[in-house]
Write a structure and sequence with these properties.
Elements: H1 4-12, H2 21-36, H3 46-51, H4 53-63, H5 78-94, E1 107-115, E2 121-131, E3 137-143, H6 153-171, E4 177-182, E5 187-191, H7 195-218, H8 255-272
Parallel strand pairs: 3-4
Antiparallel strand pairs: 1-2, 2-3, 4-5
Length: 281
């Protein structure tokens, strides 16, 4: 939805991307919030959470040594110290939004997967699942950026509705609440889905997959310029910036069939909707 050509670069061409300070900080904060729930409820304090940061950073470096590139040319460690300090502030802000001493998550970093009647397989990882004594399910996702402006709230909720759809199809239970916790701005966005919402998401996903399938067959992956282009690692090979994409690695349909297929792509893209507006990288 963001950019079809970027999807091609990442999924088909598998072009390498540089690690990002913002994305890596998000991964680190997620790991800290997940591990904090290993402690007894009374010990889930802000100082304890912040104390987890160095160890989780070491674990992240061990699993992804390439992250050392983030702070090359920082012999005194000042940039790294500032970056870790920002992670501490994000973790501390969470305690003003939720009280972990009163939470006992049913699941953390839960991998979910289901197959729709169409054969399309959906999968994802949910940050946290809370289950009330009455059985009601709440899906929670942490965001280390800022909350989107109100006009973009629907786009921000798409990921959460995706998770809700997977849980519904997998467990036959519609989650009672979807909750986005924005640590960057200290906001909490909630939404209570109903089956009709999730059915619309399912139709949108099917349309998106049809557009992906057709683009894969024809090799027609179109760039979609937005303000997010400034964070893209692939501008050197993007036509919008004067670049030339690498040779398409898959076989494509004969040229005479491409025009007919493109005519089918437009309705699919229209049904899938406009790109989601995002805040930050």
């Amino acid at each position: 939805m963001q950019c079809p050509l970027l999807y091609r670069f990442r999924v088909i061409d598998r072009l390498p991307e540089k690690p990002s300070e913002a994305a890596t900080r998000g991964t680190l904060v997620h790991a800290v919030l997940e591990r904090l729930f290993d402690a007894p409820a009374a010990d889930r304090t802000a100082p304890r959470a912040k104390a987890l940061i160095p160890g989780q950073w070491d674990r992240l470096l061990e699993s992804k040594p390439e992250l050392t590139e983030l702070f090359e040319g920082d012999p005194e460690g000042q940039r790294l110290a500032g970056w870790l300090g920002e992670a501490e502030r994000l973790v501390e802000r969470w305690f003003s939004l939720e009280d972990p001493t009163r939470l006992e998550p049913a699941e953390r970093e839960l991998f979910v997967e289901t197959e729709l009647d169409s054969g399309l397989r959906l999968r994802g990882v949910i940050d946290r699942v809370d289950v009330a004594p009455t059985g009601e399910v709440r899906i929670v996702d942490y965001k280390t950026g800022k909350a989107p402006r109100p006009e973009y709230a629907e786009g921000a909720l798409f990921q959460m509705k995706f998770y809700a759809l997977v849980v519904w199809r997998l467990k036959n239970v519609v989650p009672r609440r979807l909750q986005l916790v924005y640590l960057g701005s200290g906001d909490v966005l909630t939404y209570d889905p109903v089956p009709e919402d999730l059915e619309r998401v399912e139709r949108k996903l099917l349309a998106l997959w049809e557009a992906i399938r057709l683009a894969t067959e024809t090799g027609e992956w179109r760039p979609r310029p937005t303000k997010l282009c400034g964070w893209c690692d692939h501008r050197a090979v993007c036509p919008e910036f004067g670049g030339t994409p690498p040779v398409y690695p898959l076989s494509v349909r004969p040229a005479e069939a491409v025009e007919a297929v493109q005519g089918r792509m437009e309705p699919a893209l229209s049904e899938a909707g406009r790109p989601v507006a995002l805040e930050g990288p």
